[in-house]
Amino acid sequence: MEDHQIIDLYFARSENAITETASKYGRMLRAVTMRILRNQEDADECVSDTYMKTWNTIPPTRPDVFSAFLTKIARNTSIDRLDSNNAEKRGAGEIPAILDELEECISDPRIPVPGEGIEVREVINAFLESEKPEARKIFVRRYFFGSDVKEIAEFYDLGESKVKMSLARSRERLKARLEKEGVTV
Amino acid sequence: MIKNNTELLRAMSEIDDKYIVEILDEDKNGSASRVKKKNKAAVVRFLPYAVPAAAAVLIVFAVSRMGSMSSGTQMAESAAPAPVYEEAAAASDSGPMEAADYSNSDKSDSYSAETGGIMASGSLEAAAEFDAENMDEASEGDRNELSQIASPFRECADLDEAAGVAGFDLNLPDDLIPGSGRMINALQDEMIQVIFFNGDDHDPSEEILRIRKAAGDRDITGDHEDHAYEDILDISGYEVTVRGESSDNISTALWKNDGYTYAVLMGNETCDVKLLERIVNEIE
Asked: Higher-confidence residue: B60 or A39?
């Protein structure tokens, strides 16, 4: 079924909207949640939560790109679950390492984003736009999807050291962009 | 303001869709290492044929060269083997290429078979420890997941309870579908839905029809099919949009009244205009 037809089912409040979503994107969503949580039970629950959040968001929202829309919900739901798990001292997969790496972009633990209307989202998107495709894709795989370095290296048939180098340089450029936008670090 | 690295991680969720799609599309097409491995496998497959082919080319070359030398036109004929070389080169190139092409399409097919049209992702699948060679089990998992998805509707004991959830009521005569069992559902502040079944065990395969009432004027049929028959009927002053195979076999009906939208969705049984008129007239 086409994405727009599935979205129409949400607008019609048809239960088939969820089953069609699960049928088309269930495996992808389980992979996204599993990568972040590294726990099958938690990942499955987050996928179920993703369906319910999607149901509660559409309508009124009509997503432009349904797969990306679902992926973002699944990612946020998983990170929320991770926070909850961390409070209960349960596993966190790759995220602690990713957080350590992102710390490099923030020399001050509190980064004031300057000026009204300048959103962190805009800075990150501008940064991604300026990146070369290979570096951008490696960055997004690592910091959006939560892939580990080995996995990325295997996917692109690259050495792990090259992936690490690419990530380190991208982080430097992101830090520079945050500073350039007036962020005090 | 970013309070810490966790917030930066969360801010990453706000990246443009195109950067996410870029990765999802890439995953759908498979990783570079996978393609490389496939190509390598194709070369290995082709190898037993390549050696005899090369030997045949050499023999042809040697025979033609001997022939040209014996004719005394060595210079003129020395160029003759070139097309043979080119042909051999083309053959040795096209073999693996064809094999590679085949393996790529094979990969696409296997992805399609693996996922049944689901987003296929070599990398993402790996994260979820999906085993492409053990798809029966994955399919079973998919089926289990589909059967375990919670319904967003709240099941209600009666129409009064449903009215409390939806914020408006729906009145149906008890004998609307004589002898049927019914399941009453509601969505908070949105909708009441009554599903009629043959029998009382609410077996989905025994669904006769469902009647829905929702606040607002959205199409609540969820019907995206193309139908041979589509018409707008005047029933008791309501404009009722009907779709189906014919006026004797209506699949869905939709009408509006006083700020609410009503829908009839047929299950296993057919609905003709006469039955529809009765339903429209008896629903409030």
From this structure: A39
Decide if A77 is inside a domain.
yes
Q: Which helix (H) or strand (E) holds B186?
A: strand B180-187
A 142-181 residues inside an 8 A Cβ radius of B: 143-145, 147, 151-152, 154-157
Residue B134 has pLDDT above 60, yes or no: no
CATH number at residue A164: 1.10.10.10
Question: How far apart, in whole angstroms, are the C-alpha atoms of residue B249 and residue B32?
Answer: 52
Portion 79-138 of A in contact with B at CB < 8 A:
79, 83, 95, 98-100, 102-103, 105-106, 109-113, 119-121, 124-125, 128, 136-137
Average of per-residue pLDDT across A66-73: 96
Give the total number of structural domains in chain A.
Answer: 2
Residues A70 and A119 grouped into a single domain: no
Domain, as residue range, for A123: 95-180
Most confident of A25-39, A113-127, B139-153: A25-39
Query: In terms of domains, do A105 and A173 share one?
Result: yes
pLDDT score recorded for residue B84: 30
- CA distances (Å), B175 to each of A165, B72, B121, B154, B191, in order? 73, 106, 52, 24, 22
Residue A102 to residue B5, Cβ atoms within 8 A: yes
Per-residue pLDDT, averaged over B78-96, amounts to 33
